[in-house]
Amino acid sequence: MGGRREFSRSQKVAMLKRAMDERGCIRCEGCGLNVSGKVVEFDHIIPEALILDKTRELSIEDGRVLGRDCCHRAPGAKTARDLAAIAEAKRREARHPASGRWFRAGSRSPHPR
Question: How do the residues of the chain divide into helix, strand and coil, expressed in percent and rounded to 5?
Fold first, then answer.
């Protein structure tokens, strides 16, 4: 499994431009709060830990600008929900590990004949 993919500088600039309103204020793409002059984070819409195919390049559609304190790291916000989803996926995988014999590429049935 590959490492965590990050947005490039030019992608971050494009995401900031997308989040900017007509007056030039940067708006949190989660709640719409004016986050100009505040700390923002470039969030992966689908948590990076849940992406299996890391060979595909990231695009700006894969991310959004979130205010750190309003939508990204606040209690019960995006990061907390992502961590819970990642933990659940790991628990499921531990209970039901994919076996090469049952999940072969091109196989139509999980049951051997």
Answer: 35, 10, 50
